[in-house]
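re the bet — no i am not wrong, look at it urself. input seq straight from the record:
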Amino acid sequence: MADIKTARTQKELDLIEDVMGSSFLEHQSYVTYRDTLLLKATREANLELMRKIDAFCEEHGIKYFVYGKTLAGIVAYQDFLPGYSRIDLGFLRPEMDKFEAAFNALTDEQIEELGFKYNPFFTDKRYKNIRRIYAHIDAIEYTYVEDDLDILYGDNTLPMVIRGMIQATVFDEVPDDFFTRKKFYRQMKRRSVTFRRTIACRHMNEANYEDGYGAIIDRHMLRYKIMPLRLASWRIHHLAKRYQGRGMSNVTRMLSWRSYTVPKSDIGEIQRMNLAGLMVRCPDRPDIWGKEPILETTPELRRLQNDAKEIVVEIDRVCQELGIQYFACGGTMLGYVRHGGFIPWDDDIDIGMLRADYERFKAEAGAILDGDRFFLQTRESDPNIPYLFSKVRMNDTEYITDYNKFRPFHKGICVDVFPFDYIPNDFAEQRSFKSKVRGKAKAHHRVVNRQYPKAQAEEMPTDRKNLDWMIAQNNGKILAKHYWGISLDETQKDYDETVTCYNDVAEEEGLEYVASFVPSYTMAKVEDLYPAQRVEFDGIEIMLPKNPEKFLRMQYGDYMVPPYPHQRVGHDLLFWADAEGVGGGREAENDFFSGENNAGEE
């Protein structure tokens, strides 16, 4: 047997050998080795290219910053993320213009000496001088992929060669006003889609069309075929610069897929951090893209976990008194099986109930719950909640995220309560039903996400009130009024009627599976859920499914393998506070959280 690290049992290894062949693992180990060398060589080539770019920028006083997965790797490892070799390079628009001007001033000899080329245009001669979405910075020389013995060869028997390539991404200023920004985002999205589809039309042939490559443009084929690529490119690049130099305080990557919108102050003067031995420029606040891994539970996290345990102890008491069955699910169940309690970086508890018990819990638990300390949050008790499930909140606490910060409802520390509904036994019917239910969930969240809060609408200085601003305000307020006119009771009812449609016929049709659809899809066999078992969980007793391993394998696959360190992060909280006033979060010192949003008073 090949000497490779594996979590497989001997039975699983024997099956692999029997089905895939006796030499499969040996061959696979070589392929993995070859791919690893290719990844290592690509990293080294990109680092060398980045070193040259950094020196060029330093010489010409140009500020860049790394972001995205590159920054996440720096924060977690001071290196690349596992399996990642790309360097995500960003410039604010003025700095990108300086970079382009400085490079264009070089002679051919100077470019050769520099060791890289800046290519903002398509390389295909048919599209000469048409700007691509992202400019490419390419190393001039190729390098061979080698090990200690010799050059490596690919499946085509040719030597494996690579050269460094880094995409230069522009971050543009975006409007500070909420409605103007939303309007700008919609315009950029339409033009980005048009540009990408216009490019796709020119690279299609009969073969890849049959493979489905052309599905995205099938309905409007003629429109994108006749659209001049130069015009499509100009429209997107021209619009992206609309608010440049107008003193806006936020920036984002607007071209193609939009990135986080971040304050320019968070990018700041830019600090240097270590990427695999190379000190590169990074934003002043690297936590925009890279969170510090949580390798062991912090005292602050332990306080949140303790509050969650208090809530679930109360839920357990109420369920026992009412004769309602529940079970721990999601990360809580995974934490019990893999860690013997909480996942070290998790801060909440998830429980599930079959729909009949869930409806009883909503209807009857409120009368038994300790109302001084806890609040049963349902559509009926707190109509403004954006969720399609219920929660039990702890009064006089706060748990605020980007998603809920402006919406008026109780935002205390909570335990999520998910309903599980019967689904068909047949796989094809399960797939169809899942799609139908998720469509209803999307319709609900489309309304929620367009019920713009008044707190977002900022008063603009008189000198900025132009036609663009007036159109955005008018359209934004009309949209907000329209969507606030749609009752979440109705979207919830529409969702519930769809998701529960198999419950009444479950016994008659012998249905075996149940599922929870939001916020993510989770399914299990009823026989693997009940009868639930009572277990000790981090000092308290809770109910766990009968066969948690089967449930977890269905949901997580190889669930006993912990995630990479950089994936061990908790919820991204803006602010939290327990009943004793101890708290934290990204914006714990922000005036917005000065007490005006007391969860118990909403």
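see?? The longest strand covers residues 165-174. told u. also The chain has two domains: 10-175+243-288, 299-437+510-601. so pay up
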